[in-house]
Amino acid sequence: MFLAEEAAKSTSTFSGFDIFVILFTVVIAIGLIRLLGAKKKNPFAIGFGLVSLAVFVTLSAVMVMGWMGKL
C-alpha cells in the first residue's frame, strides 16, 4: 500500500500531446506575424489568428503550470 501511494504522488502530468500543443502555438504565432507583416492584409485571417493564438497560449500556460504542480 505504501509503494502505491508513493507511485501516485510521483506520477507526472506530462503527456506526449503536450509537445504538439507547444508546436502548434509556435506555428500559429509565426503565421500571425507573417499576416501582420504582409502588404495586403486579410482582417478575417488576422482575427482568427489572434483568437487561435490566445486560446493556445492560455492552454500552454495552464499546461506548464500543471507540470510545475501549481494547479
Q: What does this entry look like structurally?
A:
The chain has 71 residues and is an all-alpha fold. It is 77% helix and 0% strand. The protein is built from 3 helices and no strands. Helix 2 packs antiparallel against helix 3. The longest helix is centred in the C-terminal third of the chain and has 26 residues. The radius of gyration is 18 Å and the shape is elongated.
Write down the Rg: 18 Å
Distance between the termini: 26 Å
Number of domains: 1
Unreliable spans: none
* Share of residues in helices: over 70%
The number of distinct helices, counting runs of at least 4 residues, comes to 3
Oligomer: single chain
- What is the overall shape? elongated
Order of helices and strands: HHH
Largest sheet: none
Please describe the structure with a list of short key phrases separated by commas or semicolons:
71 residues; mainly alpha
Question: What's a concise summary of this model?
Answer:
The chain is mainly alpha-helical and 71 residues long. 77% of the residues lie in helices and 0% in strands.
